Amino acid sequence: MDTIMAESAAELKARKGLASTFENAALEQETSPFQFLLSLYKGNFGNLLISFVFLLVKSAPIYVLPIVTANIINIATNPSAHSMRDMWINFIVVVIVILQNIPTHAAYISFLSRAVRHVEAGLRSAMVRKLQQLSINSHRELPAGKLQSKVLRDVEAVEAMSKQFMIALAPAVVNIVVSFVITLQSSWVVSLFFVLTIPMSITIVTAFRRKIRRSNSEFRKEIEQMSSRVSEMVEMIPVTRAHGLEKVEIARIDSTLRNIQGKGYRLDLVEAYFGASNWVTFQIFQVLCLMFTAYLAYTGDIRVGDVVMYQGFFSMILASVTGLINIYPQIAKGLESIRSIKEILVSTDIENNRGKMKMMDVRGEFTFENVELSYPGSEHHVLEDVTLEVKAGECIAFVGASGAGKSTVLNLVIGFLQATGGKVRVDGIDMNDIDLRSYRKHLAVVPQTNILFSGTIRDNITYGLKEINEADIDRVVEMANLSEFIQKLPNGLDTMVGEHGGKLSGGQRQRIAIARALIRDPKVIVLDEATSALDNESEFHVQKAMQELIKDRTTFIVAHRLSTIRDADRIVVMKDGRVAEIGTFDELMSGKGEFYNLRQLSL
């Protein structure tokens, strides 16, 4: 077991290092997609080199067969100068060369796959790590479906392009070089004819390159758009079904699919003209080669068998050149996917914790000094001149109309947002100087929208924690008013909750989220409408649990229910991003100000 753990740790460290390498390579803004692809294979060039050696050996039959064919024809057409022994020797040689292809081809693919799969896993790991570093604002702006398309489809396209380079492009180049060298040794006149294929292939690629690249870019963006809309559609199915809007949603997705159909059709048409132009051109060249070598045999400059050999090598060259041109669309698709992947890897909108102070302990004192916050590209201030002192262990409730800035303040406390003006301090330390990962280990959050993953109830409660005492789990289950509900389940705590907790009611999901916060025994608690989904009886039990939870812990609450905020040490009334009033419940009610008006409206 220890050995397995050690190997896993070593593998994890290696993958982390590889992901870091990929990210650094992507950050080179001037790096072309092809240079970036080469950088991905650093450390794997040894496997690629060995794979290339096996490629040369396994490809021997296609080089030897035209020569043997020519020899046998020449022997058969001139029996007086040869014996059957010469024919048998040629036969045995070609059979041996063909048979060796089985082990050498397996070895070629083995070493190639090691390199390609290593890069594939490393690239996905780099993207996953980068997604975890991106700021919350970035995730709000980037649709989940679009990100999934980049991690799955684009990485798959890069992998396919890598395989095309080694499985199609490298053999094609080798075939061209070997065929040309053998032909040159036999007849320099015929080899010059072969050279004419090079400018013709360059001309064809140049003519279609821009159209193929533009078509691939448009198609890739439409696929990302579709992925995003399908993801939204799945999330919206309960709302769609409840309002009888199935046809509206189908029409919306159909519109996207029609766009994809059009872009895909244009891409297919460009590739069709590209492939047909390539095939026709080189078939004409092959017929010309046959006529040229037949003429040389007719005049006695070469033997009849040599016509077959040259035709075989020229066919090999044309097939290789055709193959190179035909894989260009796949390469163009892969290069476009690299550009797509780099959009994520080069993003600088990240939560940067490097070199910042790690907080080993948190007392829970918070200071807001003339805090302002506005989003990029907007002159409107979400928060303006917010000043507040919070003592360790104090419970602060925020109230106000929708859009007043309550949840924004909580996001500042969590570190999801950074103030664009003023200072937010924790225990006297500017939050901009804190390693937020270390700070959040002392923090528990119960959001307004509860988030569960498709595991068991136990997994969701103990998420991210190791070696949890069973007694602690039972305690928080009791405190969150989950005991009676869990006892009725056939598998108890080990019951699967379904994706996003789909098998549970809203109140049950919220109580599991509360239990997840309770088991962390945090120093700072953030509750954003944490009891909004509970019925009155469940809320009563959870409120009792909360009273125990918030003792000697700094607590920030956003709530509208009177029962949730009445016992807070202080209530902060927010209006238009500013602090309108601060005081206890009784003080604010007696003052008959903003809070009093809000309470009157809710009665």
From TrEMBL:
<keyword id="KW-1133">Transmembrane helix</keyword>
<dbReference type="InterPro" id="IPR039421">
    <property type="entry name" value="Type_1_exporter"/>
</dbReference>
<dbReference type="GO" id="GO:0005524">
    <property type="term" value="F:ATP binding"/>
</dbReference>
<feature type="transmembrane region" description="Helical">
    <location>
        <begin position="310"/>
        <end position="329"/>
    </location>
</feature>
<feature type="transmembrane region" description="Helical">
    <location>
        <begin position="188"/>
        <end position="208"/>
    </location>
</feature>
<feature type="transmembrane region" description="Helical">
    <location>
        <begin position="165"/>
        <end position="182"/>
    </location>
</feature>
<feature type="domain" description="ABC transporter">
    <location>
        <begin position="366"/>
        <end position="601"/>
    </location>
</feature>
<dbReference type="InterPro" id="IPR003593">
    <property type="entry name" value="AAA+_ATPase"/>
</dbReference>
<dbReference type="InterPro" id="IPR027417">
    <property type="entry name" value="P-loop_NTPase"/>
</dbReference>
<dbReference type="Pfam" id="PF00664">
    <property type="entry name" value="ABC_membrane"/>
</dbReference>
<feature type="domain" description="ABC transmembrane type-1">
    <location>
        <begin position="49"/>
        <end position="333"/>
    </location>
</feature>
<feature type="transmembrane region" description="Helical">
    <location>
        <begin position="273"/>
        <end position="298"/>
    </location>
</feature>
<keyword id="KW-0472">Membrane</keyword>
<dbReference type="InterPro" id="IPR003439">
    <property type="entry name" value="ABC_transporter-like_ATP-bd"/>
</dbReference>
<keyword id="KW-0812">Transmembrane</keyword>
<keyword id="KW-0067">ATP-binding</keyword>
<dbReference type="InterPro" id="IPR017871">
    <property type="entry name" value="ABC_transporter-like_CS"/>
</dbReference>
<feature type="transmembrane region" description="Helical">
    <location>
        <begin position="45"/>
        <end position="68"/>
    </location>
</feature>
<protein>
    <submittedName>
        <fullName>ATP-binding cassette subfamily B protein</fullName>
    </submittedName>
</protein>
<feature type="transmembrane region" description="Helical">
    <location>
        <begin position="88"/>
        <end position="108"/>
    </location>
</feature>
<dbReference type="InterPro" id="IPR036640">
    <property type="entry name" value="ABC1_TM_sf"/>
</dbReference>
<dbReference type="InterPro" id="IPR011527">
    <property type="entry name" value="ABC1_TM_dom"/>
</dbReference>
<dbReference type="Pfam" id="PF00005">
    <property type="entry name" value="ABC_tran"/>
</dbReference>
<keyword id="KW-0547">Nucleotide-binding</keyword>
